[in-house]
Amino acid sequence: MLTKAYIPYGGYYSTPFSRWQGSFANENSMELGAATTKRWMTEKNWDPKMFDYVFLGITIGQPKLFYGGPWTSAMLGAENTPGVLISQACSTSTTCIFQASVGIETGLYKNTYALMTDRASNGPHTIWPNPKGPGGEVISENWMMDHFGKDPWAGGAMIQTAENVAKEAGITREQCDAVALRRYEQYTDSLADDRAFQKRYMFPVEIQVAKKKTIMVEADEGVMETTKEGLDRLRPVLPEGVHTFGAQTHPADGHCGVIVTTQDKAKELSKDPSVEVQVISYGYARAKKGFMAAAVVPACEMALEKAERSVNDVKTIKTHNPFSANDIYLSDQMGIDVMGFNNYGSSLVYGHPQAPTVGRLIIEGIEETALNGGGYLLVGGCAAGDTAGAIVLKVG
């Protein structure tokens, strides 16, 4: 259990998530993330030089990634601050925030910034030398489609892991469709009153589309209206499967930033010093081969155990749910109502840019918990390679 790591209330933002090949498709995600952070901090009259360490979370390669951590630090205005790159697929945000928290706990850092950014659009195509191959043919790799389509260890596509869990657990197509519809309805709650909930944390992105023209992206792009009738008409993605394209997430682009610091500094930076956000614990797990969706449960259980809490003590639960089966399995195993968490939406609805996905969920969870008078927040989600990460925060 951690005791010294805090997130300032309001010391974070998430951009809207843009649909695949949408408004962010031609931007270097590190440059765009740094530029947005710089604008955000300027609005708050914060000097980026206050950070003694920067964590850059990114999973899909971009030009100049070799210099990712320190280059991003310099671009956002912390020129003398070192930075490190963390890449753990869908668990990247959880790991960045936890690693920053461990540094605060041990006294290694006093004030850190975690920027998680990814662009699933226009992913790189890597060429590797193959000197022993016939005719010197190269080894090529498509970072997006190849990796989504095949785990080199388990051997199947990511959706196959969810279908494996669904089959073993007896999860049906009807259940998956019902959860997909419920998550969309929950997302629409975040749009009420002129997007009042989203505006608590969402920060617009400025994109230069021409020499003398810029646009501001202020809301999510690519969210599809979901109805029962529409879901009924869709075919399963895999033969005999329970997931349609309406019951799985979609690739997206976006970024988010979170400050992790000491209790005193968090109060100084907080938009409301009476609200404290403390990082409590972290959990991790790896499921059996080809069962990625199942890993979330033991990761959440570990995080709760280390926090000395049970799931019944938690006020808010958010999950990264690339497939409906993830949430159904979690609810069955942990004895909770599948329709009662992921309020205000989730990655199933607004998309999955990889590194920033769980960061946005954590930010949304903080705001939801604060709205409801405080309490414990549990955030968990699966990640490539049949793994998962979870984190517990306390909003006071």
Overview of the structural elements:
The chain has helices spanning 29-43, 68-75, 92-106, 145-149, 158-169, 173-189, 192-195, 228-233, 263-269, 296-306, 324-334, 347-350, 357-371; strands at residues 6-7, 12-14, 18-19, 53-57, 83-86, 111-119, 125-128, 139-142, 205-210, 213-217, 252-261, 277-286, 314-320, 375-383, 387-395. The protein is α+β, with helices and mostly antiparallel strands and 396 residues long. Strands 2, 3, 4, 5, 6 and 11 form a six-stranded mixed β-sheet that branches.
> Main beta sheet: strand number and arrangement?
6 strands, mixed
Q: Provide the number of structural domains.
A: 2
Distance between the termini: 17 Å
What is the second-level CATH architecture of the largest domain? 3-Layer(aba) Sandwich
Q: What structural category arises from helix and sheet content?
A: alpha+beta
Estimate percent helicity: 25-40%
Computed CA radius of gyration, to the nearest angstrom: 20 Å
What's the CATH C level of the largest domain? Answer: Alpha Beta
CATH superfamily of the largest domain: Thiolase/Chalcone synthase
Task: List low-confidence stretches.
Answer: none
- Which word captures the global form? globular
Order of helices and strands: EEEHEHEHEEEHHHHEEHEHEHEHHHEE
CATH fold topology of the largest domain: Peroxisomal Thiolase, Chain A, domain 1
What is the number of helices? 13
| Number of strand elements | 15
* Average pLDDT reading: 97
Query: What percentage of the residues does DSSP assign to strands (E)?
Result: 15-25%
